[in-house]
Amino acid sequence: MTENPLIHDPHGGMPRLLEIMRRLRDPETGCPWDIEQDFNTIAPYTIEEAYEVADAIARSDWDELEGELGDLLLQTVYHSQMGTEAGHFTFDSVVRNISDKMVARHPHVFGDASRDKSAEQQTADWEKIKAAERAGKAQQRTLDGVALGLPGLTRAVKLQKRMARVGFDWDKTDSVLDKIVEESRELVEARDQLSQDEVEAEFGDLIFVMANLARHLGVDPEAAVRRTNAKVERRFAAIEDRLAALGKTPNQSDLAEMDALWDQVKAAEKDA
C-alpha cells in the first residue's frame, strides 16, 4: 500500500491527524488494537484525557497542557472516525454542529441581540436557549439531558441547578446546613443498624446535600476536593520528609507522631 505523504508532513495540520486516524482504523493495514475499539471502549480514555487537561491547567504546566490538548483532540477524531465508519456522522458534521450551536447560543455576538447585559443575564439567556434546544430533542422533563458520564459531584450540581430553575431549592444556606445535620444523623443510624447497601445510600444522600451547599456558597465541589487532595499530598510529602530526616518511614511511625508532624507542617504553611 502506498503511504499518503500527508501522514509524514509536519505541517499537515488537521487533515494529517484525520488521515492518521483513518489509517490506524483501516481494517486491512491498520493497528490491530485501534481496529478492535468501539465507542464504549474509547469513552473511558476520553474522560481520562479531559481530566489530564484539567490537571495540567491546575499545575500551570503549559508545555504539558499543549500535549494533553492534543490527546483530547485525538479523542474527538477517534470518535468521529468510528462515527464515519458506522454512517452516524463525520468529523466535518461534528465541526459544523458545534459551530452552528455556538452561533445560535451567542445572538449578542453573531446576531442582533444587545451585548449590553450583565453576566447573570447572559447566563439566563444561555439557559433559555439550551432549554429550547432540549425541547427540540423531545427532552421535556426538567432533568432530561444531564449527562450520565459526568463526575458525581458535577452532575449533582447540574441536577440541582435544573431543579432550582423551577423553584425546587432552598432559599438560604442555613436550610442546607440543617439538612446536612439531618443526613449525618441518618448516616450514623445506618452505620449502627442497617446494611452496607443502606449505608452507601445514606452516604450518597449526605454527599448530594454537601454538593448543594457548595452550590449555594458559589463553590465548585470538584475544584474544592481537588484543591484539598493537592493540599493533603503536599502536607503528607512534608511529613515523609520530616520522618526521613529522623531516619524513619511512615511505616516506622505511628498516628500520634504523624498527626503531630501534620500540625507542624500546617503551622509552617500558615507562617510562610
Automatic annotation (TrEMBL):
Residues 37-110, 174-235 form the NTP pyrophosphohydrolase MazG-like domain. GO terms for biological process: dATP catabolic process; dGTP catabolic process; dTTP catabolic process; dUTP catabolic process; response to stress; TTP catabolic process; UTP catabolic process. InterPro entries: MazG-like_dom, NTP-PPase_MazG-like_C, NTP-PPase_MazG-like_N, NTP_PyrPHydrolase_MazG. SUPFAM superfamilies: all-alpha NTP pyrophosphatases. It catalyses: ATP + H2O = AMP + diphosphate + H(+). One of its GO terms (molecular function) is ATP diphosphatase activity. It comes from the Bacteria. Its EC number is 3.6.1.8. PANTHER family: NUCLEOSIDE TRIPHOSPHATE PYROPHOSPHOHYDROLASE. Belongs to the nucleoside triphosphate pyrophosphohydrolase family. This is Nucleoside triphosphate pyrophosphohydrolase. It comes from Yoonia maricola. The lineage of its organism: Bacteria, Pseudomonadati, Pseudomonadota, Alphaproteobacteria, Rhodobacterales.
